[in-house]
Amino acid sequence: MKFQYMGLSSTLLRAIADAGYEKPTPIQWQAIPAVLQGKDVLGIAQTGTGKTASFTLPMIDKLSQGQAKARMPRSLILEPTRELAAQVAESFEKYGKHHKLSKALLIGGVSMQDQVADLDRGVDVLIATPGRLLDHFSRGNLMLSGVRILVIDEADRMLDMGFIPDVEEICTKIAQQHQSLLFSATMPPVIKKLADKFLNDPKVVEVASQSSTADTITQSIRHVGYKAKRQLLRDLLTSEKVNNAIVFCNRKIEVKEVYKSLKRHKFNAGQLHGDMQQSERMEVLSDFKEGKVTILVASDVAARGLDIPSVSHVFNFDVPQQSEDYVHRIGRTGRAGRKGTAITFVTPRDDKYLDAIEKMLGKKLTSPEGNAPTKTDVKSEAKFDKKPHHKGGHKDAKKPQHRHSKPKDGEQNEAKNKPNHNKPHKNDDDKKPNKNKHVKNKSNAKPKESSGFGDNVPNFLK
Ligand code: ADP
Ligand code: MG
């Protein structure tokens, strides 16, 4: 399949060629013709498969005719976070560079006044986070009666962040005939219900089953005591051939501590968590994309859906407590057919979560030491936990529920709903700096390009 055969305009094809895209990804070649035909679409494909272009490209052509009226946007795209909203705006900029579409971004952390001025000018494409959109709506700053195309993007993230009631409210406010597109990496029951309620006979496009990522990713675990995790991380960062890496922690407090610890040991690290200012987060992200920062310590919520470049390594500093997060995390490596390595740190308290992940994957994750306790393990376990350990037996290990409270524009309250049994430790097992520093401050180490389907053809394109 080629972009040329999908019914897109030649003007748009030029912009696509400029973007360096050779052929559409599976979600794109299945969704774009349906969107152009005016059908509702339910698109399910994991992160990094090109969902954004599968709605922005046809939208640009569809909106190229017609004129926007003041305060009556012609299309609306809902995004769960400010970063994602900003990325979608960039996509419209990139693909729509030969078109004259007006757009506005309604996200938190930016003055309402400026946003109202944008709305007054009339917008073809409105990209918004649900909370901010409803805020403007309730102040009478915009009408939704002109919306002809509605996109609910990253729907499962909306769910994680407690935005589904807001999304539903917005959907019911756009009463008139319109086309609805819903994209999600996964399809939990709540999202299925949302789709059933608001999509009209949609074309369902489902690609790249979750387990298919595993082909290019070498996954393993390391048994480690809680207090030895940072030491282990430093050892692996120096002994493995790490080009660039994301270190995932379950909670933002852990993100901060691991980041500080890596900095203390002169690693070229950055952090991404919900307590940071929007501008700081954007800066770290761009430093990481440019290779100025080579190790990014992040929480799930802060990293969610972001177009982070493919990395050589993913370290799960903590075992994710929801199995789907494991798939999202490791999906940051091994992208576009490249080889990637995912290493998960497992403390004795994590067995229950590891079991759930292994069940989902349908296989056991092994450690290169053959799961025999290493010297570090033995040493640290003694410090770690005096109590006898039963596999999966600790009582606060219930699967966390999706949060129902509404965080303002999302990220601030991340991981609030997660059970918290690893108290932040003030320990410092990481006093001695490490000798072998080849990933340290290696600012010229460029991360591999985002998803460039360069020399290796990704499996999902074959
Ligand atoms: P998703 O929303 O599915 O997580 P994105 O839309 O953010 O994925 O796309 C991930 C990356 O893939 C982006 O960097 C984008 O520029 C790139 N990309 C999208 N479509 C193509 C294509 N057809 N060819 C090459 N790269 C693409
Ligand atoms: Mg996306």
Report on this structure.
The structure is a single chain. The chain is of the alpha/beta class and 462 residues long. The chain has 2 domains: 3-206, 3-Layer(aba) Sandwich (Rossmann fold); 217-389 and 448-461, Rossmann fold. Helix content is 35%, strand content 13%. The chain has 16 helices and 13 strands. The protein has helices at 10-18, 26-36, 51-63, 82-95, 112-121, 130-138, 155-160, 164-173, 189-198, 229-239, 252-264, 278-290, 300-303, 323-330, 351-361, 375-384, and strands spanning 41-44, 75-78, 103-106, 125-128, 149-152, 179-184, 203-206, 217-223, 245-249, 269-272, 295-299, 313-316, 340-346. The strands form 2 sheets. The chain has a 7-stranded parallel β-sheet, sandwiched between helices. Strands 8-13-12-9-11-10 form a 6-stranded parallel β-sheet, sandwiched between helices. The longest helix has 14 residues, at 82-95. It is globular. It starts with 9 loop residues before the first helix and ends in a 78-residue tail after the last helix. Mean pLDDT is 80; it is low at 371-438 and 441-462. Bound molecules: adenosine-5'-diphosphate (ADP) and magnesium ion (MG). The site of magnesium ion (MG) has 5 residues, from helix 3.
